[in-house]
Design goal:
Blueprint: H1 2-16, E1 28-36, E2 57-58, E3 70-88, E4 100-106, E5 117-120, E6 137-154, E7 165-166, E8 168-172, E9 176-180, H2 185-196, H3 203-216, H4 219-224, H5 243-259, H6 263-266, H7 270-282, H8 288-306, E10 316-321, E11 344-349, E12 360-363, E13 384-390, E14 396-402, E15 428-435, E16 441-447, E17 455-460, E18 466-470, E19 487-491, E20 499-500, E21 508-513, E22 519-524, E23 535-540, E24 548-549, E25 563-569, E26 576-581, E27 590-594, E28 607-609, E29 626-631, E30 636-641, E31 664-669, E32 674-678, E33 685-690, E34 727-731, E35 747-756, E36 783-791, E37 798-802, E38 808-814, E39 819-822, E40 834-837, H9 849-853, H10 879-882, H11 884-890, H12 892-901, H13 920-929, H14 951-958, H15 967-978, H16 989-996
Parallel strand pairs: 1-9, 34-40
Antiparallel strand pairs: 1-3, 2-7, 3-6, 3-8, 4-5, 4-6, 10-11, 10-33, 11-12, 13-14, 14-15, 15-16, 17-18, 18-19, 19-20, 21-22, 22-23, 23-24, 25-26, 26-27, 27-28, 29-30, 30-31, 31-32, 34-37, 35-36, 35-38, 38-39
């Protein structure tokens, strides 16, 4: 009994001090808190006591570096008797190594008294800076000292600059070993504020204060992007000491901007703002609680000012509630199979809390049965909702909905009349009528699309039709997985008379309408280049004509966002807003403002950051914070945001680590203010739209017949293509090039290629078309037809006809018929469309030269040229038929003799052995002698492309032993090289096997 009482006594005493000590005297670990009055991001104070000498505490060095002395304060969470301490310097250098120090032990960190130790640490051996050579500095007290706080004060250092650093700080105690809790000084301070203001403010207030506290320490990051930012107030500026300074400055900017439009209305806020400004100047930054009290007042005033904005002249906001997709990829987020059930189409009434009324949220479709289509009679009470759009007159709503029911397996085939999913796992487009002014209601809910394709992103057009995105074009992306392509279509509001607006072979997103009545949308455009680039805005007429990129199509990834989604024009402005989003992620990121009038520099010239605190996800390490911006002006936006998102969350391309996303609706301004309007704690919000009438843009006359045959999917037109009205292309001057052409080159012909959409999943295609272009080694090279050539006039002009409804690529050829320049993008024409360009890769804002001088280009003075067909085995393309016969006749026998002799370096130019489902000649020629690497990831380098850029052509031109190729044979080889040395002109198993046998085979999709 006495033994038990003794053990119990020891246990109780030690629990009081925060440590467990057994009767045998062994030490137990105590978790302590370590803070410093100066710490750099990633080098926080707790790292000095984390037990790992490879991590260090380091004082701030980036933003207005403080001056010595600095202190490390350790809260032992109880009173302990210490006999000394040990300091280990950093192992990776000498910056910040401590020289003079003082140590204190106290029960009140504000009352330190005299130091218990003071002195100078020995400088470590400069020639041996490794950890093994840096001896720890040990300090033993004369007598043990007892207290709750240990403070190490750094007075000076052994290095230059006002720095201090510690790898490990060990406190010597007989009955305890101390390890730091992983918590920063900022987190500790925030926790104290939470306790002090518990019940006074909500989590939104604390979260903003924490975010701004972190951002204030990152001034150098903001300095780097200042020139790329729309308004400087949204940055962290040199004079910002803490979040209070930041919010005061931004609220003042907001007030001044709104007051400029209505001084009488906003002067009422001026007195309170002046009083708060005086309070901010009076209270020292060190007085955290008092400063936080002012922060609360500023936020309340900000909300009152922001919600008085005359642009908020609407009483309701329509939006959807939805979960993030379960798969993090820009394509997969819109496959219905990846969506989680939940949400609906909602209306938020009185969003800005006017007249003392509270907000009201209601499910617009809750009691509304579907009146037409497969789901007729049912209510949309489960499933997932996406991409609502309200007509210009406010009378109709369109949205996409997936039931989230049925088989989740993907169906694989090459039949373009079929989709790839169960109908219950596809998004379909629905419409309904809207009525009422300040309290809208819905009626006549209709399902207008159905089937095994995903149809989504409906957009009301000023010509009365609906644009939408759909998989009905057919095909797959080309970089590693089974992702069906979806592109731009339109239809009547009842779902009839569908037609394909875009014949592009890869994915497109989110159409909206410009002020001049065109469609603005996002396209993934990466023929013969890296799959993680070029997901940027394009623009086209209402009937799909003249589709051109707006900017960013050739931007290096590090300089720009991976994607620009949610493109929507700003009222009364030529600019548009977009979400800078990731490739391996979803439609969230940072908000940007784009001015299409600014010349594209393949960088940020046309782009300004609205929310610079959030870097671009993936390409620049940002998080998926903002999304779905709706512009009210250049300075004010509705948007959704989840500020808890970090760069690691939702950034994986795979479907692990699902992040739901707690996105709320915010009023965001370009000064840096964000005011929460509404959030549902159970599910994310998306796509906020003001319920109001908008001006209808003009609907330009359509040049494409309104009687065009319906296209519910793209059927093969190989036998009908010649009967369709041809398209016409005019180029003013092919010599006008963004990158200069080789000196003295004469361009004589223009070659037209047709790109063939990927018709099978790209993850493990039955037949790879050829070697992947090295800078895009995740992307399968597109199969292609060589449709033929047309002449280039002496003045560089070209005028010719092409088949419509085909995705085309152009090359300019020299006097020898070799490609000098080649597109790494594409174009297409509709029936009877006329398309004109200034040059090849010319500046998009350059004027058409001949109009200014009154001289018509030579080619335009005559009828358009007709394509002169090229070698038949290039249409459809086939290496076995185009190239191998030349090798069999002229090369194989000699090479076999030399190989039999054991001559080194002689490639096998025969068919056998077949490897990778390619001939031996192909496997050996392409890597060393062919052309498949552009040498530049985005643009073609003129004169260093195709045959001109290959070793094989140089060898043959210089004369290779006794080989004498005919002109026709030489053309076969150079044509192959100009087609980036591909093998197959098809993707499918049966067609590939036929081509491998030397037979003619055509691809499924065109």
């Amino acid at each position: 009994m006495k033994i038990l009482m003794k053990i119990f006594f020891v246990f109780v005493i030690c629990v009081g001090f925060g440590v467990l000590v057994f009767a045998d005297g062994s030490r137990r670990v105590v978790e302590v808190e370590v803070v410093s009055d100066s710490e750099a991001g990633g080098f926080e104070a707790y790292l000095a006591m984390d037990g790992n000498p490879k991590t260090i505490w380091h004082s701030e060095w980036q933003n207005n570096t403080p001056r010595l002395p600095y202190s490390l304060t350790v809260d032992l969470k109880g009173q302990f008797e210490l006999s000394g301490f040990v300091v280990t310097a950093r192992a990776d250098g000498h910056n910040g190594d401590i020289k003079n120090y003082e140590a204190f032990i106290t029960n009140d960190p504000k009352v330190t008294g005299n130091p218990v130790a003071a002195g100078q640490f020995v400088k470590s051996d400069e020639s041996n800076p490794s950890a093994s050579q840096k001896k720890p500095n040990r300090v033993n007290f004369d007598t043990p000292k007892k207290g709750q706080y240990f403070i190490l004060k750094v007075i000076s250092n052994h290095s230059e600059g006002e720095f201090a650093s510690v790898a490990e700080l060990e406190l010597l105690c007989n009955n305890a070993k101390f390890n730091a809790k992983k918590i920063t000084k900022n987190e500790i301070e925030m926790e104290r504020l939470r306790l002090a203001f518990a019940g006074v403010v909500d989590a939104e207030c604390f979260d903003e204060f924490i975010r701004l506290t972190k951002e204030v320490k990152e001034k150098s990051r903001f300095d780097k992007i200042a020139s790329e930012t729309f308004l400087a107030d949204s940055l962290i500026l040199a004079g910002d000491r803490d979040p209070v300074d930041v919010v005061l400055r931004r609220v003042s900017a907001l007030w001044a901007d709104l007051r400029a439009g209505d001084a009488k209305k906003f002067d009422v806020f001026g007195k309170e703002l002046s009083e708060l400004r005086a309070e901010v100047l009076r209270i020292p930054v060190s007085q955290k609680e008092q400063r936080f009290g002012v922060f609360i007042k500023l936020r309340k005033l900000r909300r009152a000012i922001a919600f008085s904005n005359p642009l908020l002249g609407f009483d309701e906001i329509l939006f959807v509630k939805k979960h993030r997709a379960a798969y993090n990829h820009m394509c997969d987020q819109y496959y219905g199979v990846n969506l989680k059930s939940g949400g609906g189409v909602f209306v938020l009434s009185n969003p800005f809390e006017r007249g003392g009324k509270k907000q009201e949220v209601r499910n617009l479709l809750e009691n509304l049965p579907v009146e037409s289509g497969r789901l007729s009679g049912k209510k949309l009470l489960s499933g997932s909702f996406l991409s609502p759009d309200i007509s210009f007159d406010g009378s109709r709503l369109a949205f996409a909905y997936v039931e989230c029911e049925g088989d989740v397996a993907q169906k694989f085939h090459t039949d373009p009349s079929k989709g790839h999913w169960d109908a219950g796992r596809c998004f379909h487009v629905f419409t309904c009528d809207l009525s009422g002014n300040s309290f809208i209601s819905a009626s006549n809910l209709r399902q207008i699309t159905d089937g095994t394709w995903n149809d989504f992103d409906p957009c009301w057009l000023p010509n009365g039709r609906l644009a939408f995105i759909t998989e009905r074009r057919g095909g797959y992306l080309r970089c590693g997985r089974a992702c069906p392509t979806y592109t731009l279509f339109d239809m009547e509001p009842d779902g009839s008379r569908m037609r394909c607006l875009s014949y592009h072979e890869t994915n497109e997103w989110q159409p909206s309408v410009t002020h001049d009545g065109r469609i603005l949308y996002t396209r993934w455009d990466y023929p013969d280049r890296h799959g993680c680039t070029a997901h940027h805005p394009w623009i086209t007429s209402l009937d799909g004509r003249d589709s051109r990129h707006v900017h960013g199509n050739f931007s290096p990834r590090a300089k720009r966002a991976d994607m620009e989604l949610d493109c929507r024009v700003v009222p009364d402005s030529p600019k548009f807003v977009a979400t800078a989003a990731p490739h391996h992620g979803q439609a969230y990121g940072s908000l940007i403002l784009v001015d299409p009038r600014v010349e594209d520099d393949d960088a940020m010239a046309p782009v300004k950051r609205i929310t610079p605190e959030v870097a671009f996800p993936e390409s620049q390490g940002g998080a998926q914070v903002y999304g779905a911006p709706y512009p009210l002006s250049e300075k004010y936006y509705l948007a959704v945001a989840d500020f808890s998102m970090t760069k690691e969350m939702g950034a994986e391309w795979h479907n692990r680590n699902y992040v739901r996303g707690d996105y709320g609706i915010y009023l965001v301004d370009a000064f840096g203010n964000k005011e929460l309007i509404y959030r549902d704690s159970e599910i994310g919000c998306n796509s906020p739209i003001p319920v109001m009438v908008r001006a209808t843009p003009p609907a330009p006359p359509q040049q494409i017949s309104a009687d065009i045959e319906p296209q519910p999917y793209l059927a093969p037109l190989r036998d009908k293509i010649d009967s369709l009205p041809k398209g016409t292309i005019s180029i003013v001057n092919v010599y006008q090039s963004l990158r200069g052409l080789p000196s003295g080159v004469k361009l004589r012909e223009l070659r037209v290629l047709q790109l063939i959409p990927m018709s099978v999943p790209s993850g493990h295609p039955p037949h790879e078309t050829g070697f992947k272009e090295p800078t895009s080694n995740d992307s399968i090279v597109l199969a292609r037809y060589v449709l033929g050539t047309v002449p280039i006039e002496d003045d560089g002009s070209v005028h010719f006809v092409v088949p419509p409804r085909r995705e085309l690529m152009l090359q300019v050829l020299d006097e020898d018929g070799l490609a000098v320049q080649s597109m790494r993008s594409s174009l297409y024409l509709h029936d009877g469309e006329v398309l004109s360009c200034n040059g090849c890769h010319e500046q998009k804002t350059s004027a058409v030269t001949y109009r200014s001088v009154g001289i018509s280009p030579q080619a335009l003075r005559r009828a358009p040229s007709v394509l002169k067909p090229d070698h038949p085995d290039s249409n459809p393309f086939s290496y076995p038929r185009l190239v191998q016969p030349v090798l069999d006749k002229n090369c194989v026998s000699c090479h076999e003799v030399e190989r039999a002799k054991g001559t080194k370096g002689v490639p096998n130019l025969a068919k056998e052995p077949i490897k990778n489902k390619w001939y031996a000649s192909f496997n050996e020629l392409v890597p060393k002698y062919g052309f498949y690497s552009y040498g530049e990831p985005l643009r073609t380098m003129p004169g260093k492309f195709g045959a001109r850029g290959s070793k094989l052509y140089a060898i043959l031109r210089a004369g290779h032993h006794d080989v004498k190729l005919t002109k026709e044979e030489m053309h076969r080889i150079t044509l192959w090289l100009d087609c980036v040395s591909i093998f197959y002109g098809v993707y499918e198993k049966e067609s590939g096997e036929a081509q491998l046998r030397g037979e003619i085979a055509y691809p499924t999709l065109e």
